[in-house]
Design a protein that fits this description.
By secondary structure, this protein is an all-alpha fold. Helix content is 66%, strand content 0%. It has 25 helices and no strands. The longest helix has 24 residues, at 89-112. The protein starts with a helix and ends with a helix.
């Protein structure tokens, strides 16, 4: 009775929220269902009940009970990549949260221009000072997001995105409430699963920083409007929101409710977009704008996030290549600017192989760890192992060499044609060096056959490319 009562109360509250927030914005059934799930997912009580009992979904009316061979494994994605922790680590997390709260208080005072009469601990202020110094070089391609995340005590996404919104003058220009902006960014950061080795808030912060670097490129800086820049930064910060740490094929073959909701099409990207829209409405970040403007922001945000679907890589790349071949990209045209923003976000999303080796190697290890963990789950439940997720058949080096060859190099070669700058050449330079470094760890991946025989890796280019697309980080 207790659980049923709580669920009834939550259902009534969420329906009331939607009835109050609709305004002039229309929904279709899939939109409403997606946002309904997002709002319920934000309730801690519901999340706990959901993780304990999969049947909650049918009780609330999200979907009927499934009778498939693998009806949603009941995996709690919030703990999917968690490791066993000792009892002593719990107080440590609480201490980190307290320090984070102190930093939020300090930054809020500084934003209001109020002097802090009661200084925080010297060590805490020292860390804030170092983070502030790093932000002065936020446009550097060598920006160490891992160090910045440590200096901000795990709040890299909040601090970096807020800084960029302020630096571009977007808060003042769009008359955004700083409290709402802060709350939105905090909720965004909290909605990332930081137990995921790769798809977490640090990755989102890294993509946002890369997006900033691209926005500063001459062609874009001279053409993009403030609205374009706002969309680009928000899309980068939210592009993997609430990522479960597994890819789309896993969700489909386990009959996950998200796969059914989005009809097995761009499942994760649609969920990231709807989650972002849910937070925008929850915080009422754009509530002061006309309803049609808010709806336009949500739709264009979705268009950008959906472009990160790696399974549509060839579609976007072919279109980009055609524009460059015909030299008909007109950045005075709003639709062309939006397309370039899509390509910029795609580049930012998979730019890790183009970073300096010290940073690129860390990302490679993290994404492969996430792959292999998914493969272990698939083995455990006797599912078909997804491409690149079998730790016995793949290595970090082989995964990275294939990903660079078939996905990263073609994209960044075209980006360099579009924006032939020092940054583009730097990225291609790092890409070549990093690929060579991985090749030394995987000699058979780059070695050619003797006696003039063709390279077997090249001969199987098409199937390798498809496998990489299905098993790539963004799938």
């Amino acid at each position: 009775m207790g659980i049923a009562l709580i669920l009834s109360i939550i259902t009534i509250l969420v329906r009331w929220i939607f009835s109050k927030r609709r305004g002039a914005i229309s929904y279709d059934s899939s939109d409403q269902t997606a946002l309904y799930i997002r709002m319920l997912g934000a309730c801690v009580i519901f999340k706990q009940l959901f993780s304990r009992d999969v049947r909650v979904r049918s009780q609330v009316g999200f979907e009927p009970e499934r009778r498939g061979s693998h009806p949603y494994l009941g995996v709690d994605f919030r703990t999917l990549h968690s490791r066993a922790e000792s009892a002593g680590s719990i107080p440590a997390r609480r201490i980190r949260r307290l320090f984070s709260f102190q930093r939020h208080l300090l930054s809020s005072r500084l934003l209001r221009g109020a002097p802090h009469l009661n200084p925080l601990h010297i060590l805490d202020e020292d860390y804030c000072g170092q983070a502030k110094c790093m932000l002065e070089k936020v446009g550097s391609w060598n920006f160490d997001i891992f160090l910045f995340d440590r200096l901000t005590n795990g709040n890299s996404l909040v601090f970096l995105t807020f800084h960029l919104l302020s630096q571009y003058g977007l808060i003042e220009l769009f008359q955004l409430d700083m409290v709402k902006v802060r709350r939105f960014l905090v909720l965004v950061q909290e909605d990332y699963h930081n137990q995921n080795p790769y798809h977490n808030a640090v990755h989102a912060a890294d993509v946002t920083q890369a997006m900033h670097c691209y926005l500063r490129e001459p062609k874009l800086a001279q053409s993009l409007t403030s609205f374009d820049i706002l969309l680009g930064l928000l899309a980068a910060a939210t592009h993997d929101l609430d990522h479960p740490g597994v890819n789309q094929p896993f969700l489909i073959k386990t009959n996950h409710y998200l796969a059914a909701l989005y009809r097995n099409t761009s499942v994760l990207e649609n969920h990231h977009w709807r989650s972002a829209v849910g937070l925008l409405r929850e915080t009422e970040l754009f509530s002061h704008l006309p309803a049609e403007d808010s709806l336009s922001i949500e739709r264009q945000l979705g268009s950008l996030i959906l472009a990160t679907d790696i399974s549509r890589q060839n579609e976007y790349l072919s279109r980009f290549r055609t524009h460059l071949d015909e030299n008909d990209l007109n950045l005075g045209n709003a639709s062309h600017r939006h397309f370039v923003l899509q390509m910029a976000l795609k580049c930012a999303d998979i730019c890790n192989p183009c970073r300096p080796w010290e940073l690129s190697k860390q990302w490679s290890e993290k994404v492969t760890e996430e792959f292999f963990h998914q493969g272990d789950i698939e083995k455990k439940h006797k599912l078909e192992i997804s491409p690149l997720c079998d730790s016995e058949a793949n290595t970090i080096a082989s995964v990275q060499i294939g990903f660079m060859t078939y996905v990263v190099e073609p994209l960044f070669a075209e980006w360099a044609r579009f924006s032939d700058t020092r940054l583009s050449q730097t990225m291609l330079g790092h890409l070549g060096l990093n690929k060579a470094s991985w090749s030394t760890m995987e000699p058979e991946a780059s070695g050619s056959s003797e006696d003039g025989e063709s390279d077997p890796a090249r001969a199987s280019e098409e199937p390798s490319s498809r496998a990489l697309t299905q098993g790539s980080p963004e799938s």
